[in-house]
Amino acid sequence: MTGSPLRPAPQSLEPTGRAAARRTTRTWAGACVLGAGLLLATGCTARTAADAHRSPGPDAVAGGAVSPTALPGTPAAAAQAAAAARAASGRPEYGLSDQYGGFRLDADTDTPAESPDARYTFRILAPDGTPVTSFLPQRGEPMRVYAVSDDLQYVRYLVPAMDQDGTWSTELGRLAPGDWRLYASFTPNGRPGDGRAQLPAEVLSRPFTVAGSVAGASLAPATDTAVVDDSVLTVKGALTAGRPSAFTVDFAQRVPTPQGEQQAWQNRPLSGLQRYDGLSAVPVAFRSGDQAFARIDPVDASSGGPRLGYRGVFPEAGDWRMFIRFRVGGQERTAALTLHVSPAG
């Protein structure tokens, strides 16, 4: 099965400024040979996003690659060091490690084939090294998988299927060239051998690279409002790092209001949201610079609108890119906006 893209296909941009420097860094790093012929796969953890985008094609692709060492003193090097420190910390709230609590996200390849029908295959390995085959559902699904571009321009939900031996597989389709990270959120149905019936949800991830010419831009400024077609979404609430932050999302519809010879627009509350993934809207958020993952849980998110409530834990302060997926009038839409999370205290 193929997941649906969370952003519409945008137009490609030529890299400028810091984005262009990062492209140069990636080209340099991809040519390095370490030791006796060990080729370091190209990667990057430091691109940022904007509301102007590069085109991902009709579908999307994901995989996993080892990020090269960026040039010392560059923004890419600083971001890589921050991401490495978070992954090494073993703290689960960051979601930046491929292993935690004895469980490990194992993939068949870090460089999937460049093909519209390419597949990505992975397993969740238990502490004893065997594939986990029993998971507790999260809103009806045993596994939630996201593919996220490291510039935070794109997020895609993937819908994998599991074989009896615990091997998960999903069609990737066609993704925009560049560096990505695949996140897997799951709840093992008991840790083998310890007698416990249930464990907290785990979030593990792996980086990967999609080959091709890369374009990018800077992260869009922080704002509390996003517009998708005729839908207007407004996020309200103070977001503070390191502790649960309650926020709401208000939905409205832009409708024309004639005023003389000119046409004005008016926002009217939108209460006709259709359930998607068990909720009226599904938000996900990732931190700019290192792609740390925010855990967001619904509080009152099934009413159909116009106001939905959530509680999120953002592990660190900074700018976060939030994607909100919803369905209205039978059409799936995704809003994207940059939110600022304040430091604790």
Which characteristics define this entry?
single chain; 345 residues; mainly beta; Immunoglobulin-like; ten-stranded antiparallel sheet
Can you describe this structure in just a few lines?
This protein has 345 residues and is mostly beta strands. Helix content is 8%, strand content 39%.
Give an overview in words.
This protein folds into two domains: 17-210, Macroglobulin (MG2) domain (Immunoglobulin-like), CATH 2.60.40.1930; 225-341, Immunoglobulin-like, CATH 2.60.40. The termini are far apart. Strands 12, 13, 14, 15, 16, 17, 18, 19, 20 and 21 form a ten-stranded antiparallel beta sheet that branches. By secondary structure, the chain is mainly beta. Helix content is 8%, strand content 39%. The longest helix is centred in the first third of the chain and has 15 residues, at 75-89. Mean pLDDT is 75; it is low at 1-69 and 192-199. 41% of the residues are buried. It has two helices and 21 strands. It has helices at 17-30, 75-89, and strands at 33-34, 38-39, 99-100, 103-107, 119-125, 143-149, 155-158, 161-162, 167-171, 178-186, 202-210, 225-228, 231-236, 244-259, 262-269, 273-274, 281-287, 293-300, 307-313, 318-328, 331-341.
